[in-house]
């Protein structure tokens, strides 16, 4: 078959592909290849993948260890039904439980991605507790299937609520210290106490014995890498224990060494009853997700039928990719490397906050970082009001893209989440491009 040109690929896409979260038929860049932290368009322009695509290519592109594992598995057996045990699935489940902590966790339910991982975690919580309500944060995203959409807090849930939201989904406000006018480090205790007190009050009005689970991102990702104030997650855990509510951490974006720990919840003094994962488990080479469950939940389903299932649960090829990915994290001590890179990225972003009028706040944990872009630093007026259709943020992203610095930003945030394999040299080559674009923003978009 004759290869298409880049223009033909883009044209066919514009005509026939439904582009997620966009009006259809708009501009699209056709990508021809990817390698390491880079990908290239058909004109040969190189882009540094400074967001790990959708914060999933944790180990970069075309890593031979993962590619070879997929090829070897494809030659032997691409797929076997979930009814049977396969070596990749058994091995991957064991590795996930081990890394999570085999003293507390027991089993894994595999899914195809992050949304259905959360979907099934919610279903399990309802089965185990016999309760209906699911509490989740407004500043959150849990996926685009129906229950995951309804659990999500940002505007991407609105379409799933057309004609009414699903029964039992209740939202509460989680802190965004910067946007709420607080100073991180100084006001954490006050903010934690305040938000926990409001949540407990809300629980009283919902009736705590009707609440099955509280689901939340250990570190809020797509809504701007929002770090929980100190003590907040521990406080949620305590509230869950007090009222017999299950705690579900969504690790879909924050998991797999992104924060310098294998799972982001491990940065805090908590153990969720279940946590969902996807993205970094295979770095997207083959789609895979799942839920790791505690011994207690696992025991419940030894006596009761697990009413969850997917044709591709524990997909053989995906699990083979997962085993190779997990081995790479361990053998190359990726968490240690992330912390070394954090020691460069974090101070650099803080220096951007000090230097630029448009940078309200820099947040960074591991290689999970975002800048909040403001019109005015004194008033903390955001560059774009929440869910603003006329946002100028795409213009800013476009300027970065022109320089070969590819990332995404939502609302008034620019995400900086490069592959965890990025080297010091590569990081130092890319960051000045961000500095240049921020200077342009200072000069053209600030009050
Ligand atoms: C925290 C979180 N949960 C769930 C999802 C949904 O995952 P998927 O797109 O694989 O369904 C995402 C996707 O970005 C996410 O960031």
UniProtKB/TrEMBL annotation:
GO terms for molecular function: pyridoxal phosphate binding; taurine-pyruvate aminotransferase activity. Pfam families: Aminotran_3. Its EC number is 2.6.1.77. This is Adenosylmethionine-8-amino-7-oxononanoate aminotransferase. Its cofactor is pyridoxal 5'-phosphate. InterPro entries: Aminotrans_3, Aminotrans_3_PPA_site, PyrdxlP-dep_Trfase, PyrdxlP-dep_Trfase_major, PyrdxlP-dep_Trfase_small. Keywords: Aminotransferase, Pyridoxal phosphate, Transferase. Gene3D superfamilies: Aspartate Aminotransferase, domain 1, Type I PLP-dependent aspartate aminotransferase-like (Major domain). It comes from Bifidobacterium subtile. CDD domains: OAT_like (cd00610). It comes from the Bacteria. GO terms for cellular component: cytosol. Belongs to the class-III pyridoxal-phosphate-dependent aminotransferase family.
């Amino acid at each position: 078959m004759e290869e298409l040109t880049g223009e033909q690929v883009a044209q066919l896409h514009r005509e026939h592909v439904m582009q997620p979260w966009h009006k259809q038929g708009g501009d699209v860049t056709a990508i021809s290849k990817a390698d390491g932290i880079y990908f290239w368009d058909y004109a040969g322009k190189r882009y540094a993948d400074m967001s790990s695509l959708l914060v999933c290519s944790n180990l970069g592109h075309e890593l031979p260890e993962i590619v070879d594992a997929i090829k070897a598995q494809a030659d032997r057996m691409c797929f076997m039904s979930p009814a049977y045990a396969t070596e990749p699935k058994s091995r991957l489940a064991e590795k996930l439980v081990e890394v999570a902590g085999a003293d507390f966790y027991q089993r894994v339910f595999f899914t195809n991605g992050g949304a259905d991982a959360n979907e099934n975690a919610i279903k399990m919580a309802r089965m185990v507790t016999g309760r209906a309500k699911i509490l989740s944060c407004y500043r959150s995203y849990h996926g685009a299937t129906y229950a995951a959409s309804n659990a999500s807090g940002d505007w991407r849930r609105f379409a799933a609520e057309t004609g009414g939201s699903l029964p039992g989904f209740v939202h509460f406000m989680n802190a965004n210290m910067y946007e709420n006018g607080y100073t991180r480090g100084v006001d954490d205790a006050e903010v934690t106490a305040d938000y926990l007190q409001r949540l407990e009050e809300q629980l009283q009005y919902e009736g705590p014995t009707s609440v099955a689970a509280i689901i939340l991102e250990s570190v809020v990702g797509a809504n701007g890498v929002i770090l929980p104030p100190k003590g907040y997650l521990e406080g949620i855990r305590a509230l869950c224990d007090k009222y017999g509510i299950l705690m579900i951490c969504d690790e879909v974006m924050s998991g797999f060494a992104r924060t310098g720990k294998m799972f982001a919840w491990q940065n805090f003094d908590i153990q969720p009853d279940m946590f969902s994962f996807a993205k970094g488990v295979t770095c997207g080479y083959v789609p895979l997700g799942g839920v790791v469950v505690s011994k207690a939940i696992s025991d419940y389903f030894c006596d009761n039928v697990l009413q969850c299932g997917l044709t591709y649960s524990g997909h053989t090829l995906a699990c083979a990719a997962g085993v190779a990915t997990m081995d790479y994290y361990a053998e190359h001590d990726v968490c240690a490397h992330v912390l070394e890179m954090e020691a460069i990225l974090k101070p650099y972003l803080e220096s951007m906050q000090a230097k630029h009028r448009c940078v309200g706040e820099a947040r960074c944990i591991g290689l999970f970082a975002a800048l909040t872009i403001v019109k005015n630093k004194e008033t903390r007026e955001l560059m774009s009001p929440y869910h603003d259709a006329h946002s100028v943020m795409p213009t800013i992203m476009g300027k970065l893209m022109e320089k070969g610095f590819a990332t995404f930003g939502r609302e008034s945030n620019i995400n900086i989440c490069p592959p965890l394999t990025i080297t010091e040299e590569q990081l130092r080559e890319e960051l000045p491009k961000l500095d240049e674009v921020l200077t342009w923003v200072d000069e053209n978009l600030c009050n």
